[in-house]
Design goal:
38% of the residues lie in helices and 12% in strands. It has a single domain, classed as Uracil-DNA Glycosylase, subunit E, CATH 3.40.470.10. It has 252 residues and is an alpha/beta fold. 40% of the residues are buried. The chain contains eleven helices and seven strands. The chain is globular. Helix 3 runs antiparallel to helix 7. The chain has a seven-stranded mixed β-sheet, sandwiched between helices. The chain binds iron/sulfur cluster.
Length: 252
């Protein structure tokens, strides 16, 4: 269970929240309650105590306990979705999302690639391995966070998703994020950042600050696939991760 307070939020209707492209103010938790200042919970005899970072990574399960069931319903709807005719006819399977449904942090990428299309899980190829390293550098594990994409189907040849495809899949990712209700979202790359913030700004101009949308605090950084082509940008991503972890109250 998290040592950090998680602001209560009113339930939001999927697809109705408006993007606020104004940078958000720092959270109270980041200003006044660093993770280490709180006493650790009693350790279970069966499990080692979680690190402060991991302890700060998730929130208590949502009241009602039906979040998993609702995510399963949405996953089944997505598996049957044929809104994008080309993608539905060329995909091996839909790629819904993976991770802790009570995570405070969601990584939000672009679309499945060939490996993800084959395995049915987001970020399992080379870019996914790099994302795992980024997560580990933040003292977290892949299973501590939630991971999903703008699209749930692979665009042929890994082309950039079209505007219509983003519009089609918005109904799915809006509902998915509304169910998981992460406190923080890290958009990976231009497509994810522009889709979630409903903007045409470049990723370079969207980095280094937080945005508020539907109760989520959103930060944008480069996609791991971009880092594979431009290793020098890893330093920028690490700067963004340090900013994010500080805002979450996690000391690296
Ligand atoms: S990308 Fe999304 S909207 Fe398009 S067919 Fe796949 S699940 Fe449906």
């Amino acid at each position: 269970m998290s040592n950090l307070p998680r602001p209560r939020r009113a339930a939001k209707a999927p697809g109705t929240a408006q993007a606020d492209i104004q940078p958000a103010a720092p959270t109270k938790s980041a200003q006044s309650q660093p993770a280490q200042s709180q006493p650790a919970p009693p350790a279970s005899s069966a499990q080692p105590p979680a690190s402060p970072a991991r302890a700060a990574a998730s929130s208590p399960p949502a009241a009602g306990g039906d979040k998993l069931a609702q995510l399963d319903v949405l996953k089944a709807e997505v598996a049957a979705c044929t809104l994008c005719e080309e993608l539905a006819s060329t995909r091996t399977q839909t790629v819904f999302g993976v991770g802790n449904p009570n995570a405070r942090l969601c990584f939000f990428g672009e679309a499945p690639g060939a490996d993800e299309d084959r395995v049915g899980e987001p970020f399992v190829g080379r870019a996914g391995q790099l994302l795992d390293k980024i997560i580990e550098a933040c003292k977290l594990r892949r299973e501590d966070v939630y991971i999903c994409n703008v699209l749930r189907c692979r665009p042929p040849g890994n082309r950039t998703p079209s505007g219509d495809e983003v519009t089609n899949c918005r109904r799915h990712f809006e509902r998915q994020l509304a169910l998981v209700q992460p406190e923080f979202v890290c958009c990976l790359g231009t497509v994810a950042a522009q889709a979630l913030l409903d903007t045409t700004e470049t990723i370079g101009r969207l980095r280094k600050k937080f945005f508020e949308r539907g109760g989520m605090r959103i930060i944008c950084t480069y996609h791991p696939a971009y880092l594979l082509r431009n290793p020098a940008a890893k330093r920028d991503v690490w700067d963004d991760m340090k900013l994010l972890m500080a805002e979450m109250g996690v000391t690296l």
